[in-house]
Specification:
The complex is a heterodimer of chains A (594) and B (597). By secondary structure, chain A is an alpha/beta fold. Chain A has helices at 24-30, 87-102, 118-125, 162-170, 205-209, 221-228, 260-270, 278-301, 317-326, 340-356, 373-377, 397-406, 428-431, 438-452, 490-501, 533-547, 558-568, 574-580; strands at residues 6-11, 14-19, 41-43, 48-50, 59-62, 69-70, 81-83, 145-146, 150-152, 177-179, 186-188, 215-217, 234-239, 274-277, 311-312, 363-369, 384-385, 388-389, 393-396, 470-477, 480-488, 509-513. The longest helix of chain A is centred in the middle third of the chain and has 24 residues, at 278-301. The radius of gyration of chain A is 25 Å and the shape is globular. Chain B is of the alpha/beta class and 597 residues long. The N and C termini of chain B lie far apart (68 Å). The chains are: A alpha/beta (594), B alpha/beta (597). The A-B interface holds A 52-57, 59, 67-68, 70, 73-75, 88, 91-92, 95-96, 99-100, 102-103, 132-133, 136-138, 158-159, 177-178, 180-186 and B 281, 283, 298, 300, 302-303, 305, 451-467, 470-471, 474, 479, 487, 490-491, 494, 496-500, 505.
Chain lengths: 594, 597
């Protein structure tokens, strides 16, 4: 880089040279000076940056400038003299913090975010001990909004706008936006209607980035505890692949530490009668979805005009909501295969209930998910039999951590256990469902072997992995080139979908995950607090788990083979259709498109 | 075509229209028809004359007669007396408030004597709905000159030399702004006219658009030529229906005449103008917020840089100028930079339009050279304080400005001096306050406006201003403490220091400036619990004067809480501990015995 592209400046007496276009905040960080931030969020490897410059906590003094500068969004300039801790800065920062708190409820003790709240941390960091004038300060107050997945308690909103960035810029869902003026300004669905009536997909990315308790998940831990203590119920649990790669963070473990065995022990100790694995259902999904892909592909190659390609994956419930709301005219494109969570529930309450000789009404199926949309998904009417849901309660990774802590357990140092059988056995293909590209890689492993009749030399399709929002790859199916598209983030999905709509898509199959990085970055995962390197660490853990497996192809899972032999006959059989497939609805809402 | 020997100019501004000036026009025409004079006398509905205090205005040319407060029923007299008999209708003439004599023509009126009208040059002189009248007053000569004689660079250089600065508030040199927009290369650029006038009491932009829309259109086309844009938008609040109507007419006429659209005046230059309506959000006067609103986004500001000149409407280089700024442009082009820069002070050139309001005799719109003193504006043009009261302060710059007091009366008004004295030019609102105004209440009023109009994006403007307002409210209701005054100052300084946009940064000005200039008044409120101006009700007590009370018991019977006691035909007294200050006693007393003190 040419010399002129570098800029020399002084921050708190220290000289530093940084590239042109660097912000004061980032330059200071290089010097080891952590300027406090609140609204700012930079998910670097996802290319998501939220910098409305609204909270003004990061204000610094720049010599020669009339007012203070927001360091998060002010670029460095040659010879700049910056003070991050002058009396003027400290006074302004403290005053602003006191006044943010003056319009924030003081119910920290019972807040869902207590101990994990960026606003609370900032109050601690700045040593706020009192809020002058609180006794006569009016508080802004809003109606509590509860949806199947997400609770909006906007009294706690500090207008950081992170949720808006995720919902509009990243997801292009457009459910949340700032409304009203001045003191009444708040982030809300259009016309301040309930989230449930908006175009919200429950992806939960707003919850994942909310620095306060304004956006939280609907907590079902109480219901789970009640079920566990009911002697008449057989309570079984399934755990999604991404959970094991992140749960450890809640117990102080380094991001990317796998805690599969410890998690199973903890669940058994909590009193679940059977601890099973959603990965098993992921393998089952591959059998159904892979077969459907091959079926559609073959028909298409044979010139059947009624068969549409590409086939789109359907395991992400937020993605399903997204196309039902925004692209209902394309609802015949995604695979009809249910998500692994629902396949599991359906098999558990039929095949397994039969096997252990109990009625489905006496069985409670709990799922541990990295996801908030799963809470909504398990309540969908299609997934109920006579009003009894296939999956009763879906709780998040965070909620599970709370349950474990409540039961006086710590994952650190806990002995490891294996999943129970028959619904606990899985292959590496099931595990990688947790990361973007994983579902399509797993499907490729099986589809290749089923289509070509040959055995794969290497099951690692590294071209399909990575963190880029839209990726593509092609696999040689014995002379037939299969083109694969991958998108994570609904904004990226939208781009691929528009291509399909315009008839310009080059792909045979597309995998879509709503959350950044796939399920490992789900809205129910431990909070990353703006550090997106955590997502990469979880992804790494997922692929390590896959590599450690003896079986890495879904169709080789012996319990899956047995399930078809004993119960389902073959993939896409009538019974499989009835239990493992679904249909989609036109749910286009009367809301504004972004 | 008729050759009229006399013209009746009737004000068709929003103010005069709402006082039936449109009915007056019809009546005048009818009367003229009755006399068979419809071919001799032309009735023209013009834009605002500025002298709104005495509207509706009728000015008769060529003899310059200036009739005030004319009602539709005066039409007959005007035609019969003035036109037919050649006698002025004395009762409708403006009366000099000091000499109490009728003034026959505008040249002798204090209100007009010191004015110099450049931006308002055509307001009140022509029919804004007829492009021919604008052309007859050298309209579209400037665009002609620019397109045929000057390069964009030469025009920008002329503008820079003229010293014209933005009239919307910040006072940024207009020529320089154009140059920035010109220097940013792009396949598309935009010219935006900011007509989102929002200061309470300010209406100069509305008057210009209502009275002389073509001058703004012409200036926008010139701007487009200079920066390399072929499209312009006027962002105007939907609450200005008359201005919108006249703009629409003007745009259509200009298109018909080939003065907008493709290949203007055969020069090969294309430029067209569209309208964008605002919903009346004060913050949308801030240029980045305005552009977001134009794009259909929430009207809230974003950080600068990038400036609109780099990335504006739809990410393209955009030049935003205020209405009044643009209205100056054609005159500058035609009369030259030297002419314009010879008017005004060292750093503030030309004139400024002010909207005079408040406790002043001549409420209205005036245009004076920069450097005119506050004394000249208030006492000569404005005719002094109403009811002979004492001048206390002039609030300039609207909710973003501050107060100028008696000690500033002889300070020449320009951008620099206003800022140096804790106020600002703003868009030119000037509200005059007298001894009966409480400065704490005034500060509270303005802050209340900002609290309502804040977009809520940044914490200082959203929350801190609200707290500032709460503090002022406490002070006005007698709950304030001395320490609150320090807190007011600290909060005000923090808001100035940390707010995102100009609205927030200037919002505490009314508080800080009144604290500076009227500290004693704040002190009285918090320490003595008294409002010296007698405005803050909570700090006043009802009291019955012994000399006036006849003991009629009317007050005691009216009191809903039994706070008044006294025997028949004896002095009554109010118990302040029980009194709820509803004022019923004062209303009932026929002897002026109940007072507030």
């Amino acid at each position: 880089m040419a010399k002129m592209d570098f800029i020399k400046l002084t921050i708190d007496g220290k000289i530093i040279e940084v590239a042109k276009g660097t912000t004061i905040y980032k330059a200071a960080k290089k010097l080891g000076i952590e300027i406090p931030i609140l609204c700012y969020m930079d998910l670097e490897n996802l290319n998501i940056e939220n910098k409305p410059g609204g909270c003004r906590i990061c204000s610094v003094e720049v010599e020669g400038r009339k007012n203070l500068a927001p360091s998060c969004s002010t670029d460095v300039a040659e010879g700049m003299l910056v003070k991050t801790n002058s009396v003027r800065v400290l006074n302004a920062r403290r005053t602003i913090m006191e006044l943010i708190l003056s319009d924030h409820p003081k119910d920290c003790l019972t807040c869902a975010k207590s101990g994990n709240c960026e606003l609370q941390d900032m109050a601690v960091k700045l040593g706020i001990r009192e809020i002058p004038g609180q006794e006569y300060a009016e508080m802004s107050t809003y109606r509590l909004d509860t949806s199947p997945s997400i609770i909006r308690d906007m009294d706690k909103c500090i207008m950081c706008r992170r949720c808006e960035t995720m919902c509009n810029d990243f997801q292009t869902v457009g459910a949340l936006h700032a409304v009203n003026r001045g003191f009444e300004a708040v982030v809300a669905p259009a016309f301040e209607m309930n989230l449930e009536h908006s175009s919200c997909t429950y992806c939960g990315q707003c919850v994942a980035v909310c620095p306060t308790g304004a956006l939280t998940e609907v907590d079902h831990t109480g219901k789970v505890i009640s079920a566990l203590s009911d002697p008449k119920k057989t309570v079984i649990v399934q755990t999604a692949p991404a959970v094991r790669a992140a749960l450890g963070e809640e117990f102080g473990l380094k991001p990317g530490t796998r805690v599969t065995g410890e998690m199973v022990t903890a669940l058994k100790n909590l009193g679940f009668d059977y601890v099973f694995d959603t990965d098993f259902a992921a393998d089952l999904t591959i059998m159904e979805e892979g077969t459907e892909l091959l079926d559609r592909l073959t028909k298409h190659l044979n010139g059947d005009k009624n068969v549409k390609l590409p086939i789109l994956t359907s395991c992400c419930p937020a993605w399903v909501n997204f196309f039902e709301y925004h692209f209902p005219d394309m609802k015949d494109i995604p695979s009809t295969a249910r998500s692994p969570q629902q396949m599991f529930g359906s098999i558990a309450k039929s095949y397994f209930a039969e096997k252990i000789g109990i009625k489905r009404e006496d069985m409670i199926v709990v799922s541990i998910m990295p996801c908030l949309a799963k809470k909504y998904e398990c309540q969908r009417d299609e997934f109920k039999v006579d009003g009894n849901p296939d999956v009763d309660y879906s709780i998040t990774t965070r909620e599970l951590a709370h349950l474990i802590k409540q039961a006086n357990m710590d994952l650190v140092g806990m002995e490891k256990s294996d999943f129970d059988q028959p619904l606990g056995e899985s292959t590496g293909a099931g595990v990688i469902f947790g990361a973007t590209g994983g579902v399509i890689e797993a499907a490729t492993r099986t589809a290749y072997e089923l289509y070509t009749g040959k055995s794969l030399e290497s099951v690692d399709f590294k071209q399909l992995r990575g963190m880029d929002g839209i990726r593509s790859g092609s696999v040689d199916f014995d002379g037939l080139e299969i083109k694969i598209g991958i998108a994570h983030g609904l904004g990226n999905a939208r781009k691929l979908l528009e291509e399909v709509k315009a008839g310009e898509s080059q792909y045979h199959a597309i995998e879509i995950m709503a959350c950044p990085g796939g399920c490992i970055g789900g809205g129910g995962q431990p909070l990353h607090h703006g550090d997106s390197s955590i997502l990469s660490a979880r992804t790494k853990a997922i692929y390590e788990e896959d590599e450690g497996k003896v079986l890495r192809k879904s169709h080789e899972n012996p319990y899956i083979i047995k399930l078809y032999e004993e119960f389902l006959d073959k993939p896409m059989s009538d019974k499989a259709h009835q239990l493992l497939h679904t249909h989609y609805f036109d749910k286009k809402k009367n809301t504004f498109e972004v | 075509m008729s050759n009229y020997s006399m013209h009746m100019l009737v004000c068709g501004g929003t103010g005069c229209k709402s006082s039936d000036s449109d009915i007056l026009v019809e009546k005048l025409k009818k009367e003229l028809l009755k006399q068979g004079l419809e071919e001799t006398v032309q009735v023209v509905m013009t834009g605002c004359f500025g002298f709104c205090e005495k509207g509706p205005i009728v000015k008769i040319m060529p003899d310059n007669t200036f009739y005030t407060q004319v009602k539709p029923e005066d039409a007959e007299d005007i035609v019969e007396e003035h036109v037919v008999k050649g006698r002025r209708v004395t009762r409708l003439l403006y009366k000099d408030p000091e000499k109490n004599t009728a003034v026959e023509d505008t040249k002798h009126m204090g209100f007009y004597k010191k004015q110099l009208r450049i931006a308002l040059r055509n307001c009140g002189f022509l029919d804004p709905e007829k492009i021919e009248e604008y052309i007859a007053r050298d309209g579209y000569m400037a665009i002609g000159k620019v397109l045929t004689e000057l390069s964009p660079e030469e025009t920008i250089s002329l503008m820079k030399d003229s010293g014209l600065r933005g009239r919307g508030g910040a006072g940024f040199p207009s020529g320089l702004k154009w140059e920035f927009a010109r220097n940013n290369e792009s396949d598309k650029k935009y010219v935006v006219c900011n007509a989102d006038e929002g200061d309470p009491g300010a209406f100069m932009d509305r008057s210009i658009l209502e009275g002389d829309p073509h001058s703004v259109l012409e200036a926008m086309a010139i701007t487009g030529y200079c920066i390399g844009a072929d499209e312009g938008f006027i962002y105007i609040r939907a609450e200005y229906p008359l201005a919108i109507e006249r703009l629409k007419i003007a745009i259509n006429q200009a298109r018909e005449y080939g003065l907008l659209g493709e290949n203007i005046l055969g020069s090969g230059f294309n430029f067209d103008i569209g309208l964008k309506y605002g919903a009346g959000a004060f913050v949308c006067g801030e240029e980045t917020a305005l552009i977001h609103s134009m794009e259909g986004e929430r009207g809230e500001p974003t950080l600068k840089p990038p400036f609109p000149a780099e990335s504006g409407y739809h990410g393209k280089p955009t030049n935003v100028n205020n209405v009044e700024t643009l209205a100056n442009v054609p005159s500058i082009i035609l009369k030259g930079a030297e002419w314009f820069s010879s008017i005004g002070t060292e750093k503030s050139k030309g004139t400024k339009v002010f909207a005079l309001a408040g406790k002043i005799n001549n409420v209205g719109l005036i245009e004076v050279p920069m450097g005119t003193t506050l004394r000249e504006v208030i006492f000569e043009i404005g005719g002094g304080i109403k009811d002979g009261k004492k001048f206390k302060a002039a609030q300039t710059g609207g909710p973003s400005g501050g107060c100028l007091t008696e000690k500033h009366l002889d300070t020449p008004i320009d951008y620099e001096n206003l800022v140096a004295n804790g106020s600002m030019m703003g868009s030119g609102g000037m509200i005059v306050l007298d001894e009966d105004d409480c400065m704490v209440s005034i500060a509270k009023f303005y802050l209340g406006f900002t609290v309502e109009e804040s977009c809520g994006k940044c914490v200082p403007c959203r929350i801190v201003n609200k707290r500032l307002h709460e503090l002022l409210d406490r002070i006005c209701s007698g709950k304030g403490e001395l320490a609150d005054l320090d807190r007011l100052k600290n909060l005000g300084e923090v808001i100035k220091d940390t707010s995102l946009c100009g609205l927030g940064q200037s919002s505490p000005n009314p508080v800080l400036s009144t604290l500076d200039n009227f500290y004693d008044e704040y002190y009285s409120h918090v320490v003595d619990k008294k409002c010296p101006a007698g405005v803050c009700k909570d700090l006043m007590e009802y009291f019955i004067l012994e000399e006036n009370c006849v003991g009629c018991t009317a007050c005691a019977r009216a009191c809903p809480v039994g706070a008044i006691t006294g025997e028949r035909k004896e002095l009554h007294t109010v118990n302040p501990d029980i009194c709820i200050k509803c004022g019923a006693c004062m209303e009932k007393c026929k002897f002026d015995a109940v007072i507030l003190k």
